[in-house]
Amino acid sequence: MSLRYVVRKRVFGFDKTKAEKFVAESRTLGLIDFKELCEEVTKVGLVPSGAVKFVLDALIDTLKLNINKGFSVQLGDFGCFRPGINAKSQDKLEDVTTSTIRRRKIIFSPGTVFQDMLRNASLTRMVGEVAVSGGTTPDPDEGGEGDLGDNPLG
Questions:
Q1: What is the 3-state secondary structure (H, E, C) of the chain?
Q2: CA distances from 83 to 52, 64, 109 (A)
Q3: 64 domain residue, yes or no
Q4: Is 119 part of a structural domain of the chain?
Q5: φ and ψ at 73, to 5 degrees?
Q6: Tens-digit pLDDT profile for residues 68-116
Q7: CA torsion sign, 18 to 23 to 29 to 31?
Q8: Which of 6, 52, 97, 107 has the smallest count of CB within 10 Å of its CB?
């Protein structure tokens, strides 16, 4: 597996100089939609596509149900889904209220299958839509939690 990235110029407003710096941004090759994913699972797992769709829909419904209750949901070596928030910091304890919560989110922490995949992935720099050879391997100590964004599942 190779993680693809492009280099972009960014203006950082952390100081008064509005420093321009360069940063790597990940790029994917596109999006596999739900229907296509079900078709691929059907081919690999030799299970009828209707059964695959039914099980994945049931999994999503069960994740939603349990995360809405406030539970984290561990899916074996796949990873763990848990509810989370982003909130504004306050100077005083009494100033922290529900109005300081900016965003609700679902956090996905990859399990060993994906951690191992990422640890062993090479990196390929893209120029436009063309890969430049000579990617490097990532530092195995780097990593972190995924964030599925503003998808509160409920």
A1: CEEEEEEEEEECCCCCCCCEEEEEEEECCCCCCHHHHHHHHHHHHCCCHHHHHHHHHHHHHHHHHHHHHCCCEECCCCEEEEEEEEECCCCCHHHCCHHHEEEEEEEEEECHHHHHHHHCCEEEEEECCEEECCCCCCCCCCCCCEECCCCCCC
A2: 26, 10, 11
A3: yes
A4: no
A5: -120, 115
A6: 999 999 999 999 999 999 999 999 999 999 999 999 999 999 999 999 9
A7: negative
A8: 97
Residue 144 has pLDDT above 50, yes or no: no
Rg (CA), the chain: 20
Owning domain of residue 37:
31-71
Tell me the whole-structure pTM to 2 decimals. Answer: 0.67
The tokens for 97 are 């209220």
pLDDT tops 70 at residue 135: no
**Does the residue 13 lie in any domain?**
no
Residue 127, burial from CB neighbour count under 10 angstroms (0-12, 13-18, 19+):
exposed
| CB burial of residue 106 (10 Å; 0-12, 13-18, 19+) | buried
For residue 112, being part of any structural domain is answered with no
Output the six-digit token pair for 132: 């430049």
Q: How many residues does the chain have?
A: 154
Please give the structure tokens belonging to residue 142: 């780097």
